[in-house]
């Protein structure tokens, strides 16, 4: 969550498996001019929503790899019409927008081990665009019942269809781009096209299989870690699980190209590019640590109840559990806190759904003035309790939780969370540092265990080291070998 806030949930299209034949491209195709114009218009909003875009040599390098692969997509003027952006997001993801825009997150790059794996991901997403898969995606109107803040992030409380009218206009801005799923056939085509592109570009086609294996390994570890964590599942893993046979399918297709095991991998060059890249949460957007969320720049912290999970987005933190779901956000305000809460409620419903509100109530939390209200919304799935708990942080800034629970529960499941919000000291804020990739050369005597002990985590150090480096549990390290560590870095000034 950054310094600027809005009620907007973040989702994206991820790479997933399927089975289908790959169409042969006989002649150059052109991108739809209307989709190109729409993608250009949406691009600044996408970048802002997903934490901003990386700039400098790292971004230039990733774009160069994408353009090299896209040149074999059969798209006319591919070098000019495709755009590749690295997003400052802690979610492992990549997605494509009709109109030639491909996005990949820094977190996904951090689990890759060479340039060929990056090329495959770029090729997969380019394949979606080149094959015009967007035309056959599900209609946006079919998903309107789960759009918006309450629909997208809170729908699981009483079922997706319960929030048909609780649709945020801001969330709709991205609905067409982000909430339309590809079919299994289209996903398999994108895999196959990506393999074809990277083989044509001179890369080792087997990078498709190693990249998919790396994703599988990362997902499995994340599932283990979540057993004792309050962080929610990465978007690509939760919405598009990898199939058990996807790696094998990719390996078979790679062998058919005749370039499996040959061609460019460029491991050292890739590792040099991601050396120092931020992983996990960026302190500028706040840090999740167990049950706590801490934002050093905003100087605030809160704790979620036991059993609830968090996901940190660019503009908000979402909280979910069996007792209900919520979102934390905020921004500047003028006037009274009652007016601020009214604006929040209007933003949630877009004026489409009436919420029967109880009285506004005043309180104080850890010395911070607060105002809250609970209301009842009648939906097709039954009654739902909607709560807004807002804090007057200073003369111009307010923060708030929006909660959704089953009718009759009110805000009680989140009472401890409301009372936990507090200010942190400058010293506490300064102690929060980012985690970054540190590429090191294995020295004589180094082992998996000794290097893993340097990982900047309190648990699963060895498992994380093995996963991020794509190693087998019994791997033996060799002097001169380069490996990735995750260590604490320095805050940007």
From TrEMBL:
Residues 1-20 form the signal peptide. GO terms for cellular component: membrane. One of its GO terms (biological process) is proteolysis involved in protein catabolic process. One of its GO terms (molecular function) is metal ion binding. PROSITE patterns: LYSM (PS51782). Keywords: Hydrolase, Metal-binding, Metalloprotease, Protease, Signal, Zinc. Residues 438-485 form the LysM domain. Transmembrane segments: none annotated. It comes from the Bacteria. Its cofactor is Zn(2+). This is M48 family metalloprotease. It comes from Sphingomonas xanthus.
């Amino acid at each position: 969550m950054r310094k600027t806030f809005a009620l907007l949930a973040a989702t994206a299209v991820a790479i997933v498996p399927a089975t289908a034949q790959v169409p042969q491209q006989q002649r150059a195709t052109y991108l739809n001019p209307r989709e190109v114009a729409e993608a250009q218009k949406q691009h600044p909003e996408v970048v802002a929503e997903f934490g901003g875009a990386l700039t400098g040599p790292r971004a230039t390098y990733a774009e160069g790899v994408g353009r090299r692969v896209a040149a074999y997509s059969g798209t006319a003027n591919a070098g000019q019409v495709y755009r590749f952006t690295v997003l400052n997001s802690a979610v492992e993801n990549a997605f494509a927008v009709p109109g030639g825009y491909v996005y990949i997150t820094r977190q996904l790059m951090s689990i890759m081990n060479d340039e060929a794996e990056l090329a495959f991901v770029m090729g997969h997403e380019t394949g979606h665009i080149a094959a015009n898969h967007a035309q056959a995606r599900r209609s946006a109107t079919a998903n309107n019942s789960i759009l918006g803040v309450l629909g997208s992030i809170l729908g699981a409380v009483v079922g997706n269809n319960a929030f048909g009218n609780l649709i945020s206009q801001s969330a709709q801005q991205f609905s067409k781009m982000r909430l339309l799923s590809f079919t299994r056939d289209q996903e398999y085509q994108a895999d196959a096209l990506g393999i074809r592109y990277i083989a044509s570009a001179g890369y080792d086609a087997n990078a498709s299989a190693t990249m998919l294996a790396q994703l599988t390994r990362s997902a499995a570890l994340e599932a283990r870690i979540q057993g004792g964590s309050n962080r929610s599942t990465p978007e690509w893993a939760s919405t598009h699980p990898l199939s058990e046979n996807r790696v094998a399918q990719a390996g078979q297709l790679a062998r058919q190209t005749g370039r499996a095991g040959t061609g460019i991998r460029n491991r050292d060059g890739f590792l040099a590019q991601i050396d120092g890249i931020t992983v996990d949460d960026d302190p500028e957007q706040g840090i999740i640590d167990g049950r706590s969320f801490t934002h050093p720049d905003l100087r605030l912290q809160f704790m979620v109840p036991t059993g609830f999970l968090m996901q940190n987005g660019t503009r908000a933190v979402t909280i979910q559990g069996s007792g209900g779901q919520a979102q934390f956000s905020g921004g500047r305000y003028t006037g009274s806190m009652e007016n601020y809460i009214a604006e929040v409620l209007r933003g949630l419903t877009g004026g489409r759904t009436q919420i029967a509100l109880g009285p506004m109530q005043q309180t104080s939390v850890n010395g911070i003035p607060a105002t809250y209200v609970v209301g009842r919304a009648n939906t097709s799935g039954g009654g739902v309790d909607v709560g807004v708990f807002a804090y007057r942080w200073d003369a111009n800034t307010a923060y708030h939780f929006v909660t959704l629970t089953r009718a009759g529960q009110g805000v009680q499941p989140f009472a401890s969370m409301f009372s936990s919000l507090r200010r942190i000291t400058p010293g506490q804020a300064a102690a929060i540092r980012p985690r970054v990739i540190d590429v090191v050369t294995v020295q004589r005597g180094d082992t998996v265990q000794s290097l893993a002990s340097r990982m900047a985590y309190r648990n699963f150090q060895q498992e994380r080291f093995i996963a991020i480096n794509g190693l087998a549990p019994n791997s033996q390290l060799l002097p001169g070998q380069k490996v990735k560590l995750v260590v604490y870095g320095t805050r940007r000034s």
